[in-house]
Give the backbone structure.
Amino acid sequence: MKLKKELTVQQRALEKKKHVGRRLSAKARVAEAKAAANREKVVELILTLQAKANAVSWTSSRAHAHTGRARFPHRNSPDLSRAPMASADSGEWQAASVPVPAPRATVTHVIFDMDGLLLDTEGFYTEVQEKILARYGKVFDWSLKAKMMGKKATESARIFVDECGLTGLLTPEQFLEERESMLQELFPSCVILPGVLHLIHHLHANKIPICVATGSHKRHFALKTQNHQEMFALMHHVVMGDDPEVKAGKPSPDIFLAAMRRFEGNVEPSNCLVFEDAPSGVGAAKNAGMYAVMVPDPRLDVAYHKQADQVLSSLLDFKPTEWGLPPFTE
């Protein structure tokens, strides 16, 4: 009897230790997120000043794009830069004779997805959904994730339950309720993905209208962006998954058409370039009549790339001039 009491005391002590450990882990994540956010603020300030200093007028750039004249030097294209000066005294430059490739298209407005494209949040969804499935002896794989990415929460929950054969064991509503408590703890620690700040500051400094169209609802959006307010303040507007104009989730074009309509002036779908990481998001952009640049997770099957107009491994690889946008100048 005494031994049994001692074991019970030890078990309680162990559970208490685990609980404290989990709390410390959560606090550590939030602390790290805040530190990362402070670092991002410094980077944003530097990029803003740099972009403003380097921003150039490009009113006639479209006319030059098809003439073979190298109007703008590109940071990754030394062959298109200006030739050496004719003489040190005269300071005259000789224009390069290398023809400039014609852009894929000429766009005027840019729409960004958020999860997995601007912010590194997709890993959180994977982590949580793996834990839930493990209880039922099942494995969460990328073929399932590809079907859920970019969808509204209710739709992705239905896919999860149906595809995993959990009907009768777990309802979509129960899945969302269980997932929600875990995600709320993780979202504030998300970080900005590589190349994002550079591109957004560049477009904003050059007065290219930009916005966000995300399947996330307002509560999740607030949690994910709470440490990245400065970046999202540069957006002309944000359209979320629970917006009244968004009747259906991706690949329906609703969210991108709603985002386009909120820009000033009469913007046509063919003037818009969408950045996406999810197959359903790329499908939504194409269904809206827009161009789509896909930045997929490397674990996603390449078969899902085929709808995109361009596929990049990172936003660091994006070249604005390929879409008729002002070039990077640094």
Notes: Residues 2-54 form the longest helix (53 residues). Residues 105 and 323 are 5 Å apart (CA to CA). DSSP finds eleven helices and six strands in the chain.
